[in-house]
Q: What sequence folds into this?
């Protein structure tokens, strides 16, 4: 059975994660199985070995953070094939069980004892006795239980120490009528946690088996002093297992598709849970005490019974074996209204506790789930069949997909977005907000196969090279997802069988448009991998300063390289697949070889901060390992990257002209070390307002160092706000400072006009004494005001770079850089 | 941006490196025509006030000038605008700056972190005007006796300018200011503080420079 997964992780989980350290050095552990004779002999000694462990725990109470009232009672023991005896103990305090308190001890073959402290509850100082008696606690529980029939078995009552952080609890259950998880009001408790970390309490366990009540096993924690019910749970465990099933889904993008689902053994209904993909529990679910196995598709909702918390719950309880109707779920926004509180946007569950996008559970809403479920499962299969990778982490850990996604931060919708969530170990997909009349630029849907694969590939990246999601590595990370998205698409469109990746039809460039069918009518997808600059923003090749671009735009370099490698490059200058850096063009090596080379690169060679040059090097090395040094495949990698201006096309090629802006704040500089994310500022240059500054770049590998300067798109409110720049590099900076805005400056080689560098500049006010003159004396005023705050700065505000409140070293740094950039000595 | 990343204790080393590297001049000198100048001749100005005096490290083609103040006058920093005629360029020291800290002023804060930013700046404005300044930023540091070389600048001979021996190369200090000793305290009345936190104009005497 599946449960709702609120996004918060319980304190219990964090506590356990933090407390996994051992108290003593780990003894040598054998990985060899013992002979049966040895094992029998050792098991015969198990009681003695457990007793030794128990004694040992008592001797290390101080190290465990426990007082002298602490004790341990044996709960379970086992001796494994290697001869390790594992003993689990209930923790006690003054002779009473500590609820959820546990210690584990490993007794190795050689007798070495290893206590495990993560379950131990420390800091217990309770003394005396609870105010209530056991009988009074029992009566309180029974009043709540309110049995209708005869109670044949007397409740069991045990005095315990209760950690109050476990007070309360939301419990949900599946409502077959509503076909969704709902709040289980009978089991949910709303008690306010006592202020103390531990209280005396009673655990009351009840059992009802009669015609009127059915079969119930409810347990209670009753506060020993106040009588409040602190916690309540059912002792019944699901005794039937769901079984794998194959359903049919009517998808929006691919028509009828086979869906791997699960079927309930109790009522025969289906859940969008592919039990054959993921045999290890989903980590987020596990952190909340829920076992989710298999790739499961959820929908998002706000839990109105739990502070409007963003939550998601699986598509389950489906009586029919066919899902969806293949139609797009209309975006339910009332376009004549304003804001996300549009009532038309929302639908509520029958019990009023869930608020989700209207239509989420309709057939059209199911259609989104079908596409996502199919896409993620197909991607799972692709990585398994082609590369032998079992799941995102290669450990067969279950994952999830959430459709009809909502915004976890603002209580609203989240229609045009999809993302991989490391925290959730899963993917989220919005609905698409396209509306022909009111929102013609919105997306139709975001559950297209290459997009679902894109998001899962982010997960694979996280568990392989884990490229940092910023700068060039971020561009590669994004491109990696685009690329594998396309490889999955090719795999599925080629029949989704076997261990090789087919090619797309020759000449069909639409296959290389990311989200081609998600775009509104007339659109062409998010990114054209063969020439990403078609969007007007992205880069087609590497240049100095590319880091200024968002990773979704700098990805154009990687995407084009992979397009060249798979499909080839044209030698015709008018072709969209032509590169001026590879005018002779090239022949691709096909999807299969290219994907193997790149998969090997990210899993075996690339490190997290790789740049384009490192990606190229890793691909070359992978090609050599797979196909041989000097192979056609390796040479194709050279050419593909050369086509995007990363490295030469052949070893004999002369170094290319390279234009670069000076590194102003290198790693290790004060600015780099003190700025948040200093790497972002490495090449940023400051300039004063309303002055004429002379720009300067470095030009390598040519005797013609001539540069043509230009201003690269900086507009605000429809106006050019970047000042004026002459081709020879005299920049008349704007008179106004928009603090934080970055102006792009372009320096293009006159020797090789395709080579340019993009500089980042920020214009700042440095007239500290406000006499309208930019002079070195302004720095004197900065110095005099240094360390003063606004209350003690008399007149000269020394408002360097927008800092009106405090003059400090930031003011000094920024003044120095802006002044020297404006009035260069050479 | 330029940072002074070396401690003041290394000042001498920095200067030596700067000189050894030939400052900012990089063009090979052409063979001089008869009567053509090949370097500078500089005579220090008279007097004991604010003045630019030749440093012993100067060479024929590179004139290192010390900015010196009147002995006994306590200041917290000084800056100037120095205009030079054609044939004279402003050079840079080994750290790339056109002004060099001689170590008199205490430029660091109380933390004395050698990597922290310091108020030391220079640039060349239109009209061949060197603007350079050096300032203490911490109120906790005492004002310093100005009767020493407070900072240095470099003038380099432009062999391409066609100067002849004896050509006068007048230098002009357009403007110069100092931070006085008393800049008030943070607890002063703001009106008092306002009056005290003003840089004071000074007159800097310049010697006689000619082509040689």
A:
């Amino acid at each position: 059975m599946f449960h709702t997964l609120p996004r918060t992780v319980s304190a219990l989980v964090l506590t356990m994660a933090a407390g996994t350290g051992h108290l003593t050095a780990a003894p040598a552990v054998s990985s060899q199985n013992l002979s049966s004779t040895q094992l029998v002999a050792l098991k015969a000694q198990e009681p003695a070995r457990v007793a030794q462990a128990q004694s040992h725990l008592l001797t290390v109470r101080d190290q465990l953070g426990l007082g002298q009232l602490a004790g341990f009672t044996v709960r379970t023991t086992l001796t494994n094939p290697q001869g390790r005896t594992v003993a689990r103990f209930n923790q006690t305090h003054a002779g009473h069980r500590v609820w959820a308190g546990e210690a584990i001890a490993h007794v190795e073959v050689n007798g070495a004892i290893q206590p495990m402290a993560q379950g131990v509850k420390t800091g217990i100082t309770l003394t005396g006795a609870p105010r209530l008696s056991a009988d009074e606690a029992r009566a309180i529980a029974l009043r709540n239980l309110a049995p209708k029939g005869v109670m044949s078995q007397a409740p069991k009552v045990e005095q315990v120490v209760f950690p109050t952080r476990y007070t309360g609890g939301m419990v949900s259950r599946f409502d077959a009528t509503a076909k969704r998880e709902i709040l289980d009001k009978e089991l949910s408790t709303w008690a306010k946690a006592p202020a103390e970390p531990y209280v005396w309490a009673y655990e009351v366990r009840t059992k009802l088996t009669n015609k009127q009540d059915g079969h119930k096993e409810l347990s209670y924690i009753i506060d020993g002093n106040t009588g409040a019910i602190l916690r309540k749970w059912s002792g019944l465990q699901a005794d039937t297992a769901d079984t794998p099933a194959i359903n049919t889904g009517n998808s929006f993008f691919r028509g009828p598709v086979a869906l791997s689902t699960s079927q309930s053994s109790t009522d025969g209904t289906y859940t969008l849970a592919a039990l054959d993909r993921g045999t290890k529990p989903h980590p987020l679910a596990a952190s909340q005490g829920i076992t989710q196995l298999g790739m499961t598709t959820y929908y998002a909702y706000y839990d109105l019974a739990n502070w409007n918390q963003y939550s998601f719950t699986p598509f389950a309880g489906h009586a029919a074996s066919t899902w969806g109707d293949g139609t797009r779920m209309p975006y339910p926004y009332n376009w004549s209204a304003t804001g996300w509180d549009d009532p038309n946007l929302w639908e509520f569950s029958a019990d009023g506790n869930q608020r989700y996008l209207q239509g989420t559970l309709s057939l059209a809403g199911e259609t989104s789930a079908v596409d996502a479920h199919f896409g993620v499962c197909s991607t799972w299969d692709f990585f398994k069949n082609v590369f032998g990778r079992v799941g995102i982490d290669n450990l067969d850990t279950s994952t999830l997909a959430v459709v009809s996604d909502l915004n976890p931060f603002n209580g609203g919708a989240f229609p045009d977005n999809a993302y991989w969530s490391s925290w959730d170990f899963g993917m989220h997909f919005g609905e698409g907000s396209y509306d022909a009349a009111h929102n013609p630029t919105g997306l139709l849907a975001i559950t297209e196969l290459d997009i679902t694969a894109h998001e899962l590939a982010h997960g694979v990246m996280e568990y392989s090279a884990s490229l940092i999601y910023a700068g060039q590595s971020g561009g590669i990370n994004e491109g990696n997802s685009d690329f594998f998205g396309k490889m999955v698409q090719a795999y599925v469109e080629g029949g989704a069988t076997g261990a090789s990746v087919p090619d797309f039809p020759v000449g069909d460039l639409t296959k290389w448009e990311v989200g081609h069918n998600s775009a509104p009518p007339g659109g062409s997808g998010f990114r054209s991998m063969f020439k990403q600059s078609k969007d007007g923003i992205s880069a087609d090749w590497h240049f100095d300063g590319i880091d200024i671009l968002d990773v979704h735009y700098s990805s154009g370099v990687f995407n084009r390289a992979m397009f060249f490698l798979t499909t080839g490059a044209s030698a015709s200058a008018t072709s969209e697949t032509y590169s001026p850096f590879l005018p002779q063009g090239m022949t691709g090596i096909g999807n299969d070889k290219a994907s193997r080379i790149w998969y090997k690169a990210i899993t075996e060679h690339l490190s997290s901060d790789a740049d384009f040059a490192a990606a190229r090097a890793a691909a070359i090395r992978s090609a050599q390992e797979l196909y041989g040094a000097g192979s056609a495949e390796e040479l194709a990698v050279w050419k593909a990257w050369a086509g995007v201006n990363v490295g030469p096309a052949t070893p004999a090629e002369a170094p290319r002209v390279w234009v670069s802006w000076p590194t102003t704040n290198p790693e290790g500089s004060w600015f780099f070390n003190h700025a948040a994310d200093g790497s972002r500022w490495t090449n940023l240059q400051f300039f004063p307002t309303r002055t004429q500054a002379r720009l300067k770049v470095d030009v390598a590998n040519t005797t013609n160092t001539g540069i043509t300067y230009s201003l690269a798109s900086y507009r605000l409110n429809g106006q050019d706000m970047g000042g004026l720049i002459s081709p020879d590099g005299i920049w008349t900076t704007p008179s106004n400072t928009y603090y934080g805005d970055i102006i792009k400056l372009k320096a293009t080689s006159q020797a090789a006009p395709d080579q340019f560098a993009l500089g980042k500049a920020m214009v700042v006010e440095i007239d500290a004494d406000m006499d309208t003159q930019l002079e070195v004396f302004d720095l004197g005023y900065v110095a005099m005001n240094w360390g003063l705050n606004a209350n003690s700065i008399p007149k000269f505000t020394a408002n360097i770079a927008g800092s009106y409140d405090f003059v400090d070293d930031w003011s000094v740094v920024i003044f120095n850089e802006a002044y020297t950039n404006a009035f260069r000595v050479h | 941006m330029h940072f002074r990343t070396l401690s003041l204790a290394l000042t001498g080393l920095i200067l030596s490196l700067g000189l050894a590297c030939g400052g900012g001049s990089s063009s090979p000198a052409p063979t001089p025509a008869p009567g053509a100048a090949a370097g500078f001749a500089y005579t220090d100005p008279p007097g004991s006030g604010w003045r630019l005096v030749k440093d012993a490290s100067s060479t024929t083609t590179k004139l290192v000038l010390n900015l010196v103040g009147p002995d006994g006058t306590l200041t917290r920093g000084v800056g100037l605008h120095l205009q030079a005629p054609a044939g004279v360029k402003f050079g840079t020291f080994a750290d790339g700056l056109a002004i060099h800290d001689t170590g008199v002023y205490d430029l660091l804060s109380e933390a004395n972190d050698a990597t922290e930013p310091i108020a030391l700046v220079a640039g060349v404005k239109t009209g061949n005007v060197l603007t350079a300044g050096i300032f203490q930023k911490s109120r906790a540091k005492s004002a310093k006796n100005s009767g020493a070389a407070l900072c240095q600048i470099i003038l380099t001979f432009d062999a391409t300018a066609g100067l002849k021996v004896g050509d006068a190369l007048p230098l002009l200090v357009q403007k110069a200011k100092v931070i006085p000793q008393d800049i008030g305290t943070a607890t002063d009345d703001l009106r008092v503080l306002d009056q005290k936190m003003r840089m004071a104009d000074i007159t800097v005497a310049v010697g006689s420079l000619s082509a040689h």
Notes: The CA atoms of residues 217 and 235 of chain A lie 5 Å apart. The first strand of chain A starts at residue 70 and ends at 79. Confidence is low (pLDDT under 50) at residues 1-30, 172-183, 236-240 of chain A.
